[in-house]
């Protein structure tokens, strides 16, 4: 629904009536997020257009550029999985197990998509019936985040709204209010007031919620082009109407004496018309300025790409075996937007790991969430041959981990290094690019050993 700011002193005195008031004051914001969701799903303004004349064509063509922008932006940003690493292998293994149990890659993708559509998205962490750590997205129209007005990252509370129907199809409402230590449960039947049902303590040692923002303003990726998309839908639909109107044009007959409807049908059936002297047969057509219409559509189409930052991937300039520099230049505008998304999303992932670490430490561990390194990989077009050549040239100058990390398609460098070591044990002589890496490090190790022996002697 929204994010509201409150001073900590006021929040500490919050009561049942305040929760109900905050919910009712903010529930109207749901209309904005419903509109954005409909825009993504293709329910555009043109879908509700009515015709002025019952006999006129009424094509309502939806060209869903909004969905295109979100899908391309999300795929480019997080189509490749986020890579996590840490020097603490035991800690990293526990985090990986929790992520795999929650299908973290798919969760991240859905969070990024909803963030692209709504401008922000929430994630709720909880413990299931088997005491496993779980996390799940909560969309903007289902949550109200209360933050500390004095600091941007100060989470004070979170209100989750759950709407559903019972087995008799009666509307029901549940509201959950989370603080750093408790969960308050409210419920309401259709048309009735919210009633507090229970208060239960939790052990997250913080509000178990993460906010993922698209940017500081919480603006979605296609909000700025909705009016352009509506205009493009209109001109495409009107063009279709013009062609359909002319396909079904009226037949105009002049100076043919008395002509009945049956006469006209007979003429069209036989494909011949006998005219009186000076008579004529013609169609009543609307003139189409094809050049002006196409230029207008082209301008709208280009503007949608320009203002969304998403390049036209079907453009001929993307064809062929482009160099890495050429690809980077064409993707430059989208890269600037994705860099902002990446920074905001990383803060969310860090908070997710921090909350998980709170629970792990509750059971006797002593981990620090800052020990987990987070790396994003852009899912962009690659010149793989060029990339491989660069890595091979630098393989004797860089560390093994750095060189392998430069290879496109490798998400976990440590896992790849372990595989190389295993191959060394299975084969006497490593092959390919890795051979250069391994041989270089073996030579370096021998030189270090000889230098150490000389120093000792």
Quote the beta fraction: 15-25%
Structural class: alpha+beta
N-end to C-end Cα span: 73 Å
User: How do the helices and strands follow one another from N- to C-terminus?
Assistant: EHHHHEHHEEEEEEEEHEHEHHHEHHHH
Q: What average pLDDT do the residues reach?
A: 83
Helix percentage range: 40-55%
Q: Major sheet: size, sense and barrel closure?
A: 6 strands, mixed
- Report the C-alpha radius of gyration, rounded: 32 Å
Number of strands: 13
Number of domain modules: 3
Note the overall shape.
flat
Low-confidence stretches: none
Number of distinct helices = 15
Order of strands, main sheet, comes to 1-5-6-7-8-9
Which key features would you list for this structure?
457 residues; alpha+beta; 3 domains; three-stranded antiparallel beta sheet; six-stranded mixed beta sheet; 18% strand; 15 helices
What does this structure look like?
With 457 residues, this protein is of the alpha+beta class. The chain has 3 domains: 2-213, no CATH class; 223-322, no CATH class; 382-457, no CATH class. It has 15 helices and 13 strands. The protein has helices at residues 8-12, 16-26, 30-41, 65-78, 89-101, 104-118, 226-247, 261-270, 290-308, 324-330, 332-362, 384-394, 400-405, 413-426, 433-456, and strands at 2-6, 83-85, 120-127, 133-138, 143-148, 155-165, 171-178, 182-189, 195-201, 209-213, 250-254, 280-284, 373-375. The protein has a 6-stranded mixed β-sheet. Strands 4-3-10 form a 3-stranded antiparallel β-sheet. A two-stranded antiparallel ribbon has the order 2-13. Helix 4 crosses helix 6. The termini are far apart. The mean pLDDT is 83.
């Amino acid at each position: 629904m929204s994010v509201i700011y409150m001073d900590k002193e006021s929040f500490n005195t919050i009561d049942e009536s305040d929760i109900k008031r905050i919910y009712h004051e903010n529930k109207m914001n749901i209309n904005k997020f419903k509109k954005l969701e409909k825009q993504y799903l293709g329910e555009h303004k043109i879908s509700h257009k009515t015709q002025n004349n019952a006999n006129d064509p009424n094509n309502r063509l939806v060209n869903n550029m909004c969905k295109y922008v979100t899908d391309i932006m999300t795929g480019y940003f997080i189509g490749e999985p986020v890579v996590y690493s840490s020097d603490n292998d035991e800690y990293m293994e526990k985090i990986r197990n929790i992520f795999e149990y929650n299908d973290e890659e798919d969760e991240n993708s859905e969070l990024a998509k909803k963030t692209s559509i709504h401008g922000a998205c929430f994630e709720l962490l909880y413990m299931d019936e088997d005491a496993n750590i779980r996390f799940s997205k909560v969309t903007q129209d289902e949550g109200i985040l209360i933050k500390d007005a004095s600091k941007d990252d100060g989470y004070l509370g979170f209100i989750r709204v759950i709407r559903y129907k019972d087995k008799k199809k009666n509307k029901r409402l549940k509201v959950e209010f989370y603080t750093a230590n408790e969960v308050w449960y409210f419920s309401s039947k259709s048309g009735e007031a919210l009633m507090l049902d229970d208060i239960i303590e939790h052990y997250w040692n913080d509000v178990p919620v993460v906010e993922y923002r698209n940017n500081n303003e919480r603006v979605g990726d296609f909000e700025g082009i909705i009016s352009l998309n509506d205009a493009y839908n209109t001109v495409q639909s009107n063009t279709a109407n013009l062609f359909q109107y002319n396909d079904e044009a009226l037949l105009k007959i002049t100076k043919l004496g008395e002509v009945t409807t049956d006469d006209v049908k007979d003429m069209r059936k036989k494909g011949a018309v006998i005219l009186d002297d000076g008579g004529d047969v013609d169609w009543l057509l609307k003139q189409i300025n094809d050049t002006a219409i196409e230029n207008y559509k082209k301008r709208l189409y280009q503007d949608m790409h320009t203002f969304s930052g998403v390049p036209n991937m079907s453009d001929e300039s993307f064809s062929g075996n482009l160099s890495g520099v050429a690809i980077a230049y064409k993707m430059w505008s989208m890269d600037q937007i994705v860099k902002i998304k990446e920074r905001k999303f990383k803060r969310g992932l860090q908070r997710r790991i921090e909350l998980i670490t709170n629970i792990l430490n509750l059971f006797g561990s002593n981990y620090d969430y800052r020990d987990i390194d987070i790396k994003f990989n852009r899912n962009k077009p690659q010149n793989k041959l060029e990339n491989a050549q660069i890595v091979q040239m630098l393989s004797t100058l860089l560390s093994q981990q750095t060189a392998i990390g430069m290879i496109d398609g490798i998400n976990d460098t440590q896992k790849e290094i372990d595989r190389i070591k295993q191959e060394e044990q299975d084969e006497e002589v490593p092959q390919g690019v890795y051979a250069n890496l391994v041989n270089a490090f073996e030579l370096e190790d021998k030189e270090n050993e000889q230098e150490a022996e000389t120093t000792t002697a």
